[in-house]
Prior knowledge:
mainly alpha, Chloramphenicol Acetyltransferase, 3 domains, 3 strands, 10% strand, disordered C terminus, catalytic activity
Amino acid sequence: MWRLLRNCKATWTVTALKLQSKQLSSATRPCIQPFNDINAEFLDFRDHVFDLDNGGTLKASILQLSRDTHVFMLCYLHIVMDGISLRTFLGDLNQSYVSPGVSQPASQYLDYAIAESKQLKGQAIKDDLKYWKQQFETPVDCLPLLPFSRVQSRPPLSISKSFTARAFIKKETVARVKECSRQSGSASFHFYAAALQVLSSNSLMVHLTNCASALLMQTGTTTDISTPLDSN
């Protein structure tokens, strides 16, 4: 446990960990008794007050139900770990018991920062900058206004604000969109992005492949939504 905590950056801010072990199984106890003890331990965790002044942000218990059955309970302050961190922590904990010494500690934030700093000084980033400077050597024209726009020009903005337009689609249509997306090996987002691309392209009479590709780059997929989808 202590070795795992040393390798887990999420717990490096902790200077005190209360770890206790309790044996709940007994030949004289009813079978239901251990589970009552587990509930009592859970209630104790719920009412636990963390000693923040002394770094006490974690509390753990190992409850022994039998020789081969144990219950591991972990109580921690919300600033120490989130849900994803807890899943990683429990996975590493299981690995340390199943195959101790096999897995090596993963790269931490400091390692990543050092690697990124070296990358920014290397040739790869210079080649990337050169490429994108060539791509944007000629500024891209602004999209024209849609024909159904209520204004005739775009006023200059002094501040940036976001706008959200909401529309409700019938559940039957949503089901057809999901089925079409499944058949094309894409997600529903790609279908809606393609519909937006077609609407904008037909209304503005401009080619928006680059715009659609930018949307796909943000989702980490290579699906080509510029290809017309089956209307069925």
